[in-house]
């Protein structure tokens, strides 16, 4: 087949895919880094306890590690509690969209830092 038969992938689609993958990678990196320095995995319960300064400081960590937390809790809940497949599918979409948005922010920040 000639090259004209294959449709070209739009550059925006490539950037979106890279942002999605970068968002999941940074989410796993943040969660693993937290686990190295703390006793357990990060959780949304970090916002419930401790002094107000610690709760406020946990927001950036949770903002970027949320896709990892959502997927970890979803897979664990599906295995242990037998959650329905529809719930797992919705949670995967939510984690994917969150990863896409956080990855987009990170890619844009990298572009600004590298162009300066």
Descriptive tags:
75% helix; flat; mainly alpha
Description:
- With 116 residues, the protein is mostly helical.
- It has helices at residues 11-37, 52-80, 85-115.
- The protein has one domain (10-115).
- 75% of the residues lie in helices and 0% in strands.
- Helix 1 packs across helix 2 (52-80), helix 1 packs across helix 3 and helix 2 packs across helix 3 (85-115).
- The longest helix has 31 residues, at 85-115.
- It is flat and about 60 Å long.
How are the secondary structure elements laid out?
Layout: H1 11-37, H2 52-80, H3 85-115
Helix pairs in contact: 1-2, 1-3, 2-3
Brief synopsis:
The chain contains three helices and no strands. The chain has 116 residues and is mainly alpha-helical. The termini are far apart.
Number of strands: 0
Give the count of structural domains: 1
Biggest sheet layout: none
Question: Overall mean pLDDT score?
Answer: 88
Distance between the termini: 43 Å
Q: What is the percentage of strand-forming residues?
A: under 5%
The parts where pLDDT drops under 50 for at least 5 residues are none
Note the total helix count: 3
Global structural class: mainly alpha
Rg value: 18 Å
The proportion of residues forming helix, as a percent range, comes to over 70%
N-to-C series of helices and strands: HHH
Shape: flat
